[in-house]
């Protein structure tokens, strides 16, 4: 597939929005963005057993490549492949999101806002919860397995050519993540999309996604994670993640200032300093959480929270967000600022409030404090590091009032399991330690030893598998006739969250 057959370079060279005429409403001046006429909704196609069998064959083939936990830090292989494919990554505007926590939720919020403004969207996130097709979404829906297989077959000859070139230069073949990123960009060019919302896989500077030169770069909060790859200090990790902020000057047209905006979520001061210095070096305009944008007010509401957000263009009141936790309110402020920056909104030129409300009200972020059962209430959350577990604990404490909360926890072996358990300890009455099916999962007995140190012997239960652990946790929550005030939270890993979603009959989304 040659992206030149269907690219939108000519669209990218002109403004992708019209300012139209400013109008005065009760909310003040608003920016009537010239939206595309709303087309037909994407056709829903049945997924057959044959489709899933073909998908499994492709997955088995791709699983022979390096996994996401084996890293060779360079963009050279991706650049070779993009050239061979005709540079599909240049055929659409993009918003690129890096950070340690909150990336996926922020990406989903940005994408939902874009769809509310009738933009055709491409979304790529990682890792997936249940099915690999979740990683590549068009119009908010995972790509159909048939299209996933088709796109792989179309780009496969070029991938093999790039493999050969890399090996001749002494490097490895492309990793599975690199191939999936290329498939996403090919799918977006093929659609074609009006905007791609792209989540960094790991780090930023040399992440496979970073072959794009995004219109807006977003850095969510940076913390200590993947220290074996990204560095031992928050400054080193921030430097890697800030690598998605790049100069956008066109050397052939130095008279036309480029749009280049960096949206920076709340940061440790040391991380913020590094990110700001990099933004200055790349001539990027910067908007910072707590300065240029932020959360004015957040109150608990049935099914989520009610927000007033301060954006780049002013305040956006009475926004309902169907997600719990102050961290999601902060993610919403970051997402709104990113969309404002993309459309060129600013003081006196705000986005349409009703459209913003619609975009947030329809956000889905599966596996993020997601309720999958009532009586007792069962939640799933993909928190997999101490920073994420802390945010989860704070959300449970602020937004819910459980008299008894049972945790079901399985953590991957390369994560800070002690840190995760310590962050959760004050929020859980008891914990059921278990093991998901990932070969990288920490053995349940080793996790149990850690849990006993932190929780004490009496509060720790053990189950060798997730279904058994969930069943035990529900029984514990129902004890003593206090079912109405009891709950279960299943967490510790994206894999744990995904397997729990499947267990409760949730469809990939």
From TrEMBL:
Pfam families the record matches: Mur_ligase_C, Mur_ligase_M
Top-level taxonomic group: Bacteria
SUPFAM superfamilies, sorted: MurD-like peptide ligases, catalytic domain, MurD-like peptide ligases, peptide-binding domain
The keyword Zinc belongs to this UniProt entry's keyword annotation: no
Molecular function GO labels: dihydrofolate synthase activity; tetrahydrofolylpolyglutamate synthase activity
EC number, as in UniProt: 6.3.2.17
Domain Mur ligase C-terminal: 367-493
Residue ranges annotated for the Mur ligase central domain, each copy included: 186-339
Keywords, ordered alphabetically: ATP-binding, Ligase, Magnesium, Metal-binding, Nucleotide-binding
Enzyme class at the top of the EC tree: ligase
InterPro entries according to UniProt: Folylpolyglutamate_synth, Folylpolyglutamate_synth_CS, Mur-like_cat_sf, Mur_ligase_C, Mur_ligase_C_dom_sf, Mur_ligase_cen
Catalytically driven reaction(s): (6S)-5,6,7,8-tetrahydrofolyl-(gamma-L-Glu)(n) + L-glutamate + ATP = (6S)-5,6,7,8-tetrahydrofolyl-(gamma-L-Glu)(n+1) + ADP + phosphate + H(+)
Similarity field: Belongs to the folylpolyglutamate synthase family.
Protein name: tetrahydrofolate synthase
Organism the protein comes from: Corynebacterium felinum
Organism lineage string: Bacteria, Bacillati, Actinomycetota, Actinomycetes, Mycobacteriales
């Amino acid at each position: 597939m040659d992206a030149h057959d269907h690219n939108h370079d000519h669209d990218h060279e002109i403004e992708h929005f019209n300012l139209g005429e400013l109008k005065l409403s009760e909310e003040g001046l608003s920016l009537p963005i010239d939206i595309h006429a709303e087309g037909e909704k994407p056709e829903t196609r049945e997924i057959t057993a044959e489709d899933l069998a073909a998908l499994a064959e492709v997955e088995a083939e791709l699983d022979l490549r390096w996994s996401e936990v084996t890293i060779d830090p360079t963009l050279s292989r991706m650049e070779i492949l993009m050239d061979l494919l005709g540079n599909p990554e240049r055929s659409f505007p993009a918003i690129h999101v890096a950070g340690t926590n909150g990336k996926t939720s922020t990406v989903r919020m940005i994408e939902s806002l874009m769809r509310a403004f009738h933009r055709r969207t491409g979304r790529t996130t990682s890792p997936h919860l249940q099915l690999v097709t979740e990683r590549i979404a068009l119009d908010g829906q995972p790509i159909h397995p048939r299209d996933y297989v088709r796109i792989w077959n179309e780009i496969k000859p070029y991938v093999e050519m790039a493999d050969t070139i890399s090996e001749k230069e002494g490097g490895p073949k492309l990793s599975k993540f690199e191939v999936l990123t290329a498939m996403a960009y090919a799918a977006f060019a093929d659609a074609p999309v009006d905007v791609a919302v792209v989540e960094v896989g790991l780090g930023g500077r040399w992440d496979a996604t970073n072959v794009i030169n995004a219109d807006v770069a977003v850095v969510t909060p940076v913390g200590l994670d993947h220290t074996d790859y990204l560095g031992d200090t928050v400054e080193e990790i921030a430097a890697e993640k800030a690598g998605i902020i790049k100069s956008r000057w066109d050397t052939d047209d130095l008279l036309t200032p480029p749009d280049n905006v960096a949206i920076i979520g709340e940061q440790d001061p040391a991380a913020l300093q590094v990110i700001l210095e990099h933004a200055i070096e790349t001539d990027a305009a910067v908007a910072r959480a707590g300065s240029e944008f932020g959360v004015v007010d957040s109150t608990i509401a049935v099914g989520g929270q009610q927000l007033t957000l301060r954006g780049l263009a002013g305040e956006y009141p009475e926004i309902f967000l169907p997600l719990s936790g102050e961290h999601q309110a902060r993610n919403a402020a970051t997402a709104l600022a990113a969309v404002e920056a993309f459309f060129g909104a600013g003081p006196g030129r705000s986005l349409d409030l009703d459209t913003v409300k619609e975009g947030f009200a329809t956000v889905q972020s599966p596996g993020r404090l997601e309720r999958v059962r009532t009586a007792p209430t069962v939640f799933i959350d993909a928190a997999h590091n101490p920073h994420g577990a802390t945010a989860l604990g704070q959300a449970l404490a602020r937004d819910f009032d459980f008299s008894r909360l049972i945790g079901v926890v399985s953590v991957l072996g390369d994560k800070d399991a002690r840190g995760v358990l310590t962050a959760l300890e004050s929020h859980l009455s008891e914990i059921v330690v278990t093991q998901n099916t990932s070969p990288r999962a920490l053995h349940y007995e080793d996790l149990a030893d850690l849990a006993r140190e932190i929780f004490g012997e009496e509060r720790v239960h053990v189950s060798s598998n997730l279904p058994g652990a969930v069943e035990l946790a529900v029984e514990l929550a129902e004890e003593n006739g206090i079912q109405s005030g009891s709950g279960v939270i299943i967490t510790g890993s994206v894999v744990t969250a995904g397997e729990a979603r499947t267990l409760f009959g949730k469809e990939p989304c």
